[in-house]
Task: structure prediction
Amino acid sequence: MPPRLPRPSSVWGCSIGRHLLLLLAGLALALGLTGCSEIPKANANIAFMGDSITAFWWLPKTNLGIYGDTAGEMLARFPTEVLGHGYKAVVILAGTNDVRVPTQPIDVYAPQAAANIAKMASMADGAGIQVILCKIPPIEGELGRVETLNALIETLAQQQNYKLVDYYAPMVGHANYFRDGEHPNDAGYFVMQSALTKVIPLNY
Result:
């Protein structure tokens, strides 16, 4: 529904004022906003499971991101936080903390993280919830580890016919998209939003 234009006051009664109001309303519609001060939000039917990268993001209305969570920790809370709530889709962004502080060799922790992601996806799929897996964004100094896990996530999506969002490719090599080499800044989150909406609409 288009934003309601305020009633012109004596100040805005001239044609210039009306034209400016129409211009602002058009801009709001073009951006998908309901008002000039609002920002886009995904439909509450889409659950976003993740860590701090999800937790700090303004986009999810149903934000299930918890700072520091590994894929295994997300798996532990997945049944109670995602299943049985009527969600139509779940966006799973997991693995950053598995990569960032690995306690085991790469050939061990990456498959374990991917296996935990696979279990979450399987539970959601079995409950009739659309699964959207995500390649994790780049982490400064850990690109090789990130790429290893992302390859496993991509393979899982292909094998199980899950939707896949690639946050890695449009962000790698762009330090200006991050606050600290790991967490996106506003520009980075807009890049992520663009990648996501190529796979699933925000009003899904």
